[in-house]
Amino acid sequence: MGVWMRALLSGLLVLASLVLGTAAFSAAWLERNVVAAEGFAALGEPLGRDPGFQAELREALAQQAADSANVPGPLAGLVAPAVERVLQGLQEAPGYGEAWTESLEASHQRTFSADDAGPAPAVLDLSPLARLATERIGEDLGVPLPAPGDVVADVGPATDWPARIASLAGTWPALAVGAGLGALLALAVARRRGAALAWLGAGVVVVGAVLWFAAGAVPSLAADQAGASPVASAFAAGLAEQAAASLHGWLIPALLGGGILLVLGLLGMALAPRRR
Q: CA-CA distances (angstroms) from residue 124 to 52, 104, 160, 166, 229?
């Protein structure tokens, strides 16, 4: 095989490895943080303490409580103050953390199990929090209140993206193997392996930087797709910020690894004997 042919083939293999590696990285992140229910719950857990989201959540639960409360006439005037008292302290109430986690898991279940019925919107299921709030309001009033029905807010328009994401996420092991084989073959056929390694590392750094800035744009994209209700919009915006932070956390090791490969490749080029 000629020198230029080896260089061209090595370059193409480096490019293929970078493309497959980028796809594998994205699919693995989706598998861990979106498709997996526990990962989704962990991603959304900080919103349970976010002041902006909490304000919208209180408004949504207050409206639900006012609509569902059915108390005797003499107690009707006490409902609004009780609702305000309970919801102001709901975040510190026993069982709040478990109810919020259950809400996230229920939201994930509703969103990712709807593919059999065709396109459906992503939803925020607030039913566990509504039940907790209703129980606390009943305790405050001294009167048992009826359990609320489903309290669900659409986070986005109807779409089949959950099924597509689940399908893509499951391919990450094969994509990662392909990326690794591509990198090894690129080094095997390269005439100057140090240069091939340097190009591979530089490619990882460039791709990582592009993904870093792309992740930073996720919150603004989520704002454009937010649901009609304020609580759904606040949830979408907050979850997008958490997703961007998670992606940045995943990208740091990749950027460091790419930098190490680049340095090793440059060292290999400097120390390798020159070929005539």
A: 16, 7, 17, 19, 11
| Residue 115 and residue 162 in contact, taking contact as beta carbons nearer than 8 Å | yes
For the stretch 10-38, pLDDT in tens is 999 999 999 999 999 999 999 999 999 99
What phi and psi values does residue 39 have, to the nearest 5 degrees? -70, -40
Overall pTM > 0.85: yes
Per the DSSP assignment, residues forming a β-bridge with 152 are 125
Domain boundaries, given as residue ranges, for the chain: 3-36+163-269, 45-160
- Angle among Cα 42, 135, 125 to the nearest 5 degrees reads 35
Cα dist from 40 to 2, 33, 207, 218, whole Å? 51, 5, 25, 16
Cα separation, 78 vs 139, in Å, equals: 13
Closest among 211, 216, 213, 204 to 255, alpha carbons compared: 204
Instruction: Report whether 16 contacts 182 (CB < 8 A).
Output: yes
